[in-house]
UniProtKB/TrEMBL annotation:
InterPro entries: 4Fe4S_Fe-S-bd, 4Fe4S_Fe_S_CS, QueG, QueG_DUF1730
Species assigned in the record: Idiomarina zobellii
Cofactor note: Binds 2 [4Fe-4S] clusters per monomer.
Catalytic reaction annotation: epoxyqueuosine(34) in tRNA + AH2 = queuosine(34) in tRNA + A + H2O
A cellular-component GO term for this protein: cytoplasm
Name of protein: Epoxyqueuosine reductase
A GO BP annotation: tRNA queuosine(34) biosynthetic process
GO MF entries: 4 iron, 4 sulfur cluster binding; cobalamin binding; epoxyqueuosine reductase activity; metal ion binding
């Protein structure tokens, strides 16, 4: 590469090109994450990763991004908004007969979309400089994307461990482009959580065990997405009607009053997933599950875990003879793991669910006060 390259101009161009590709913010950082290694090791030693063996398998590689693509000296970190118009948080959470799906999963899988855009950004850089070498990442390798985003000035790490921005909240995806160009780096932004602990208080399962420390084994997103076995019984009533993921810590965050809505059509809710009736989803065959969720991130949990999650939600729903009948009709031909959750749900339904949990009520009140006007 020529020594005459104006790297500052190139960095400015990269940010402009990124904006043209639909990224709401682009930042640049070096690859030194050494200060995070001890924290990562302690998190693993505590067993907070649960059954996510891949976290332990890759160990400290996550904190050493330069090893993922030899020759890289910088990370171009990007973010893309995903909050859809008329997200309907409170409406869905209020109605126990409906299933709540994390807002990021309502549309098409973001991984391919963002990775394609990142590759286009890399190709554009490469077209300007033949010696440029890059590799895009969107949850596709063991890399600590949030610390990189924080160093690149995309936001600060909130107490719920997500990246927050004063102008945009936290409803955005992250992606990275490792590159071999010594671009000028951006400065981190000032932390803005202060003394607020709303995210810690609202978490139904108290998964945020300390500021900036998440025990994934208690997290509803982990329990409904990453866990492949039975959901511990102590957490089932707390899951409520959340059938894929959980947004509670984001819903309560004061900074999300300033969240920006997405303009990406691919992130718009699919009709069958926007405030869906639990019984309608329960009636899906495995083939319908595969067909209806083609291109959706939900598909990767598989039909067995899908039924498991739905059974828990049906067990938490208001008592209804139709629910009892639907559960009873599916006790045959399912795995032992699913059958266990059906039996639990039937017991709940038959004895009656007295009331929505206090935490759900608090969440709904908070959501109704704090959502963006069009969400």
């Amino acid at each position: 590469m020529s020594n005459s390259i104006n790297y500052q101009q190139l960095a400015d161009d990269i940010k402009r090109w990124g904006a043209e590709l639909g990224f709401q913010k682009v930042g640049i950082t070096d690859l030194d994450l050494s200060k995070h290694e001890a924290t990562l090791q302690q998190w693993l030693d505590n067993g907070y990763h649960g059954e996510m063996d891949f976290m332990e398998r890759h160990g400290m590689l996550r904190a050493r991004p330069a090893e993922l693509h030899p020759g890289s000296v910088r990370a171009i970190s990007v973010r893309m908004n995903y909050l859809p118009v008329e997200a309907g948080f409170a409406k869905t959470l209020k109605d126990g007969s409906k299933g709540y799906i994390s807002r990021y999963a309502l549309g098409r899988d973001y991984h391919k979309l963002m990775r394609k855009r990142l590759k286009q950004l890399g190709d554009r850089i490469q077209s300007e400089f033949d010696g440029a070498d890059f590799r895009p990442f969107v949850d596709s390798a063991p890399i600590m994307e949030r610390p990189l985003a924080e160093k690149a000035g995309l936001g600060w790490t909130g107490k719920h461990t997500l990246i927050l921005d004063k102008d945009s909240g936290s409803w955005f995806f992250l992606g990275e482009l490792l590159i071999n160009l010594p671009l000028p780096v951006d400065e981190p932004v000032e932390e803005g959580c202060g003394s607020c602990t709303a995210c810690m208080t609202i978490c139904p399962t108290q998964a945020i065990v300390a500021p900036y420390e998440l025990d994934a084994r208690r997290c509803i997103s982990y329990l409904t997405i990453e866990l492949r076995g039975a959901i511990p019984e102590e957490f089932r009533p707390l899951i409520g009607n959340r059938i894929y993921g959980c947004d509670d810590c984001q819903l309560i965050c004061p900074w999300n009053r300033y969240a920006q809505l997405t303009d990406e059509d691919d992130f718009s809710p699919r009709q069958e997933l926007h405030s869906p009736q639990l019984l309608e989803l329960w009636a899906w065959t495995e083939q319908q599950f595969l067909d209806n969720l083609q291109g959706s991130p939900i598909r990767r949990i598989g039909y067995e875990c899908w039924l498991r999650n739905l059974a828990v939600a049906l067990g938490n729903a208001p008592s209804d003879a139709a629910i009892i009948e639907a559960l009873e009709n599916k006790t045959e031909g399912v795995t032992d793991m699913v059958r266990e959750h059906i039996d639990w749900a039937l017991e709940r339904q038959r004895t009656g669910v007295a009331e929505v949990t206090k935490q759900l009520k608090r969440l709904v009140r908070a959501v109704e006060k704090g959502l963006p006007r069009d969400a």
